[in-house]
């Protein structure tokens, strides 16, 4: 009954419009990055002078992140986090206006956390990259490689999960099959995750996160994007609709069972990149206002703010200004929130 | 104790960075608008061929909107909404790169709903503008003028609220004081709203919304922006920090008591402009998928889809294609959701 010769509107037309919007989004991401990078650099210089800036910001983190930060996680962040940064390696690296084939997607981003030398882990830098990639079946989204935090003896808040996730990832990389389930590292992690069953909820487990579905390598993604571009050129509908990828349900269900150490890795990552990072001053101001209201005793502060020289106690009030006159007000990082207020 | 001569970091520095980010945001809004307008025009041409496109999209609306759409509202939208559009009058109108003083803010937007001739109200177009304005005390946000829906006798789902809100607004405009509480229109609306106390929850009441705080006129806003620019030039802190406007708490508390017919006017407006409008094809596709799964009988459809000629019943399946072959698939608007599925 349907007249296939002269359809009123086709899914291809809708898909072409969505593709056009996606291209605009990509251009906007690049434009935004180019415009804001100098301002972020300026911001970094200012906030470097404010003790506890990032711990205070993260203390105000939205629910997406906050619900996963336990009191012990918070203590580590407060006492040791000195710097946080978001960069987009897919933008800095690329040469042409079209990201396809020129390396990573501009939607990919890297989160960098810097810590003081501390009692819990050997690392002073933890970097986690989130790659926006396309799988050969049409799925696209963020994937990441597990970060192996080098916990000190008896200090591992993740109970071995980040290490196990890293070892499985490396073992799979060696076999060239990122879905390999025949490895002992797979069996071990699967058993551990099933046994833990949500018991381990340390924020740091998030560093072991891989994907909401399964890992997709840069090679697979490049191939899938090339195939997709080709299909579009041939005006075929298969795979041309970004909203309806050509997935087999069985395959998807199977992939969904991939062992994963953190339930909300993508939400946390996106929240860091798109909320905490651009909104840091807003969150810091919020933290200051809460502090003003709660009448915090400045004597609670210790010398942890000075990351350059831990042996020399400093007068924090003298450094950052303890009062807020109406004129040129100096900014106090304030007392670090040594305990979660919201838990 | 604090060394005010050499502060580590000042609130002014943080405010200057926030200002720089805000300027970038403004530029991004303009850029996005310029790039996407031609694609929206193309989209309008395609979706004009799809019956019930906008009702199907709004049926998938996110919680911010959905929670306020009652079954009777939904029925009116499904049976009569033929077109929806978002424009930004502050961008089209302005000449220079700086919006201050060149008319409305680029963040301002206008929502336009087109309806068939219907049994409920006389209007075939309802337009509601949301102006991003700054009050003289530093507050900034969206305000709107009430839209007086011309309900047919006995059909007013808002129980007179949109009409009363409009009359109060016009009466205040005549007195030149948008905070005037000495008017009988104010007393009447206040009494009505207090009496209703959340009883009236028709979606259409939203057309009467004014502000989350109080109305701010274009004149007040222009004056406040000019004063703010001046204060920034003089490097004064008062009013220069967009996060900490110079509000007196008493005044704010008083303003918060302004009579308002809808509790969530701003959320709904923003959701329409920033979610429904750019994501319409995604929501439409979702609606199609739900329909595929629910195995809707096409015979349920009637001739309401043809707005141009209501007297001539048409074969919807013939027009839009009832099946989805793998080749060039035509798009069916599908059965209109005549009742809320989620309520």
Low-confidence parts of chain A = 1-7, 93-102, 236-251, 296-328, 337-343
**Beta-strand segment tally of chain A:** 4
Q: Order of strands side by side in the largest beta sheet of chain A?
A: 1-2-3-4
Strand content of chain A: 5-15%
CATH superfamily of the domain at 11-150 and 202-247 and 263-282 in chain A: Nucleosome assembly protein
CATH class of the domain at 11-150 and 202-247 and 263-282 in chain A, please?
Alpha Beta
Question: What is the radius of gyration of chain A computed over CA atoms, rounded to a whole number of angstroms?
Answer: 23 Å
Order of helices and strands of chain A: HHHHEHEEEHHHHHHH
Based on the structure, what is the oligomeric state of the protein chains?
A: homodimer
Secondary structure: elements and pairs:
The structure is a homodimer of 343-residue chains.
Chain A: H1 11-47, H2 53-59, H3 63-66, H4 71-80, E1 81-87, H5 89-92, E2 109-115, E3 125-134, E4 140-144, H6 161-175, H7 184-196, H8 218-233, H9 249-256, H10 265-276, H11 280-294, H12 316-320
Antiparallel strand pairs in A: 1-2, 2-3, 3-4
Helix pairs in contact in A: 2-4, 2-11, 6-7
What does the model show?
- The radius of gyration of chain A is 23 Å and the shape is globular.
- In chain A, strands 1-2-3-4 form a 4-stranded antiparallel sheet, with helices on both faces.
- Chain A has a domain of 206 residues: 2-Layer Sandwich (Arylsulfatase, C-terminal domain).
- Chain A is an alpha+beta fold.
- In chain A, helix 2 packs antiparallel against helix 4, helix 2 packs across helix 11 and helix 6 runs antiparallel to helix 7.
- Chain A has 12 helices and 4 strands, in the order H-H-H-H-E-H-E-E-E-H-H-H-H-H-H-H.
- In chain A, strand 3 and strand 4 form a beta hairpin.
- The N terminus and C terminus of chain A are likely disordered.
- The interface between A and B is large, with 55 and 55 residues.
- Chains A, B: Belongs to the nucleosome assembly protein (NAP) family.
- Chains A, B: This is Nap family protein.
